[in-house]
Amino acid sequence: MYEIVVIILIAYVLDLLFGDPRWLAHPVKAIGWLITKIEMPLRNIVKNERIAGVIFTAFIVIVSWIVVFFAVQAAGHLHLFAGLLVSVFFVYSGISVKDLKVESLAVYDALQNEDIISARKKLSMIVARDTKDLDKTQIIRATVETIAESIVDGIISPLFYAFIGGAPLVIAYKAVNTMDSMVGYKNKNFINFGWASAKLDDLVNFIPARISAILLPIAALLSGKNARNAWKFILRDGNKHPSPNSGIPEAGVAGALGVQLGGINYYQGKQCVKPFIADMSQALKTEHIKESLMIVYVCSFLAVLAGFLITR
Q1: Are the CB atoms for 71 and 82 separated by under 8 Å?
Q2: What is the mean pLDDT of the chain?
Q3: 270-277 and 261-267 strand pairing
Q4: Which of 195, 214, 249, 262 would staple 276 via disulfide (CB 3.0–4.6 Å)?
Q5: CA angle 235, 199, 131 (to 5 degrees)
Q6: pLDDT for 242
Q7: Distance CA 217, CA 230 (A)
């Protein structure tokens, strides 16, 4: 158990320092490649889209786990240190603290320079919603919402699965996350085929999202924000979001900052009205992007600390 704790600590520090290892082949890109290669042949073979989606989801997750498991084992047979390095790499590639900061601050910097066009473009790289017509306040809201949601799927969930199952389970989790982002849409093409991927994504994030409900108020307190409101709105509004998990971190961050999230979004030109989360004690400002990132960083540290204390 101490071995996995050391692996996670090293991976976490590497992520804080360097972000995603873009200079190496990223496992998520490999998973994305596999998804594109498997989807259409499986659709052609299995005519029932929902059954095809279940097989697709199981195949991608199992293959992802097996490849990493044997990669770690093979490296470990060569040398114990090699096995540790391979494990560190996969866990490191599964955490997204630094990249979330870099990508969000790119939007922040564009807004500070009053460059709305650039801000929309930067935002489009981290959200699925349409960004071409967003005004400044809408851009800030979208950025803060994305930061809040990423607390779970980019930080707490990968750390949670790293502590209970090491590198193979981290990459299996990232496979689920990647499938959801690629096929988990409620449109004509994916409503049935992507059903299993979307449901599995909800399932694997269920416990980490509830962990965030505990950590976020503490992170808010340590960040000098409103911990009481974070807890209040997690309880009141955490289940309002269409996703069973995303509403919890959004409510926590919104409450901590004293802002309101939710409202009208557009996806591929189609309007989507999401319920308002938290009460607005102040209007959204550019600085709320930085303040939400501070909460993220503190929350990530608390997640690592909690994992260490529970598993020691």
Answers
A1: no
A2: 95
A3: antiparallel
A4: 262
A5: 75
A6: 85
A7: 5
Beta bridge partners of residue 266, listed in sequence order: 271
The structure tokens 């996806």 sit at: 267
Residue type, 176: V
Please count the residues of the chain: 312
Largest CA distance in the chain: 59
Q: Provide the pLDDT confidence category of residue 1 given band limits of 50, 70 and 90.
A: low
Alpha carbon separation from 186 to 161, 199, 218 (Å, rounded)? 27, 12, 35
Q: Is 214 exposed, middle or buried (0-12, 13-18, 19+ CB in 10 A)?
A: middle
Interval 119-158: pLDDT, tens: 999 999 999 899 999 999 999 999 999 999 999 999 999 9
Q: How confident is the model at residue 104 (pLDDT cuts 50, 70, 90)?
A: very high
- 8 A C-beta contact, residue 249 and residue 212: yes
165-191 in b/e form (b: 16+ CB < 10 A) is bbbbbbbbbbbbbbbbbbbbbeeeebe
pTM over 0.90: yes
The C-alpha angle with vertex 208 and arms to 201 and 69, in degrees rounded to 5, equals 65
Q: Residue ranges per domain, the chain?
A: 2-311
